[in-house]
Amino acid sequence: MSGVLRKAAITGHPVSHSRSPLIHGYWLKKHGLEGEYGRLDVPPENAERFYGNFRDAGLIGANVTVPFKEIAAKACDWLDEAASAMGAANTLWLDENGRLCGANTDGLGFLGNLDQLAPSWDENPGTAVVLGAGGAARAIVWALISRNYTTVHIVNRTREKAEKIVDEFGAGTVACDWDNLGTTLAAADVLVNTTSLGMTGKPPLEIDLSNLPAHALVNDIVYSPLETDLLKQAAARGNPIVDGIGMLLHQAVPAFERWFGERPVVTEELRMLALKDLGVNA
Ligand code: NAP
């Protein structure tokens, strides 16, 4: 390893929008490490070949963007528990035997964000309500179960997608309809929006929070805008809230530690840098 520049990259198609180079570049500088983190566009027709022959890329590891997380997971010789449960990997590395290993750190990013900004949020794990049933929802359901939430309601426009997550994760997960959201919210200790609703350029998230218990923590993983209408509405009625930018930053922590050997910290400075880069007002 000594003398060889350790290089990692964000891989996928497209990769130009990714903030990962900014995040890992910040930490490399902060820790005074001689590594590199770049962007590598992988055309869709080459994806299987690229991840299948990852050793030839000259990288010690990589992040993987949508839509290649499943292809990357299939190419791995070893998967961590989260990647294995989700069938999708967002972080890759080569181990000392040259085996391709994969992890899914999206759920850890969600947990790291709440642990940092709402310490003890999971002291009495009970019932969670997750809006959405896409890739991010799957990671968050996994994360909530890992923290012993006993019931996780999944509310999605397309009910079959919520049911698919329930089939995968089993007991404790329940598929629910938007029409019954008021009743579902009455039992919530945690409410997470994982749909793209409320994001700049997308339709608004229309939701009535009047049944939500006052103690329930509300998290929106949409971070553009940072303070979404959901968070504004929740804060106005006194619920604790956490915004979504921290999830993006925290999902990078385990990857950086794996590749470069030091555990980085999500600082206020990094949060501000990322928001500025995204053009989002803090
Ligand atoms: P995805 O797999 O495409 O899922 C999108 C979800 O939004 C689905 O549940 C979809 O419902 C729902 N949705 C979209 N338009 C809708 C509409 N008009 N009405 C009702 N539901 C609608 O996307 P994803 O990867 O899970 O990401 C979801 C959001 O989370 C995005 O805004 C993304 O930027 C954000 N995100 C943030 C982080 C972070 O680090 N903070 C990480 C990952 C993702 P259907 O199934 O019915 O289509």
Question: What report would you give on this structure?
Answer:
This protein is an alpha/beta fold. Helix content is 37%, strand content 18%. It contains 12 helices and 12 strands. The strands form 2 sheets. Strands 2-1-3-5-6-4 form a 6-stranded mixed sheet, sandwiched between helices. Strand 11, helix 9 and strand 12 form a beta-alpha-beta unit. Helix 5 packs across helix 6. It is globular and about 60 Å long. The model has no long low-confidence stretch (mean pLDDT 96).
Structural category is: alpha/beta
Catalogue the ligands: NADP nicotinamide-adenine-dinucleotide phosphate
Determine the mean pLDDT.
96
Helix content: 25-40%
Given the structure, what is the number of helices?
12
What order do the SSEs take from the amino end to the carboxyl end, as H and E?
EHEHEHEHEEHEHEHEHEEHEHHH
Terminal CA distance reads 40 Å
* Overall shape: globular
Assembly classification: single chain
**In this structure, how is the largest beta sheet organized?**
6 strands, mixed
Strand content: 15-25%
Low-confidence parts: none
The strand count comes to: 12
Task: Please give the structural blueprint.
Layout: E1 6-12, H1 20-30, E2 35-41, H2 47-52, E3 61-64, H3 69-75, E4 78-79, H4 81-86, E5 91-94, E6 100-103, H5 106-117, E7 127-131, H6 135-146, E8 151-155, H7 159-169, E9 173-176, H8 181-185, E10 190-193, E11 217-220, H9 229-236, E12 241-242, H10 245-250, H11 253-260, H12 268-278
Parallel strand pairs: 1-2, 1-3, 4-6, 7-8, 7-10, 8-9, 10-11, 11-12
Antiparallel strand pairs: 3-5, 5-6
Helix pairs in contact: 5-6
